[in-house]
Amino acid sequence: MYFLLANLAFLDVSDSSVTAPKLLLGLLNQRKTISFNECILQMFFYHFIGGAMAFFLVGMAIDRYVAIHKPLKYLIIMNHSMCMGLVALAWLGGFTHSAVQMGLLLQLPFCGPNVLDNFYCDVPQVIKLACTDTHVVELQMVFNGGVLLVVIFIILLISYIIILVKIRTHVTDGKHKALSTCGTQIAVVCLIFIPSIFIYARPFKKFILDKVVSVIYTVITPMLNPMIYTLRNAEMKNAIRRLISRMLFSGKKLKT
Length: 256
Prior knowledge:
By secondary structure, this protein is mainly alpha-helical. The protein has 9 helices and no strands. The protein has a single domain (about 1-255), classed as Rhodopsin 7-helix transmembrane proteins (Rhopdopsin 7-helix transmembrane proteins, Up-down Bundle), CATH 1.20.1070. About 80% of the residues lie in helices and about 0% in strands. The radius of gyration is 21 Å and the shape is globular. The chain starts with a helix and ends with a helix.
């Protein structure tokens, strides 16, 4: 589980590193331009990492399923090779998804407007700059991105429902810990998938909440995921309490 959590943390850091630096740079020096090649690279890595995270969460659901349904065989089934295989498949799935998205986008001619209605490059905004009818390509991208997200989200919800039923009816020892772990992963899944589905599982038209949702799943969600997993760890919570107590005690001592 901790091997998978470490990879999830790496994905969160990588995800926020694609868009956040450009956002901060634009806020600091008011330079709000990006070259076409940089824009394409930003979109590629953003969808590459985002797709890998979506498939990776499926791997984490498999890990929880095995841990609860096959506890005596957990270490045999979820061995190092299996964990490495799940991680490799997640990255391969993300790469394939991103490559298809960029392949569909790069076949379009860009010769007209060059103003993006967002703080980073993304498919729904860039495709609107093409000098041709993009209706068919948009449908292909919605199927490759939005429909895929919806299917994975439904699969994850069903798997966690099955796990929760199993915990409720069969697990006696460690029930609270199992529920806590599953609850944490469900919260992370919802934080990632619900905003993404809102953006990609519909026609690429402007909505008032688009930018707000973009900030949530590009900046807020990668920041919240480590916090959610950290605060459910008893040792980490105790360490945070000791640190806060030490800071408060030190502050009082300096004040007197």
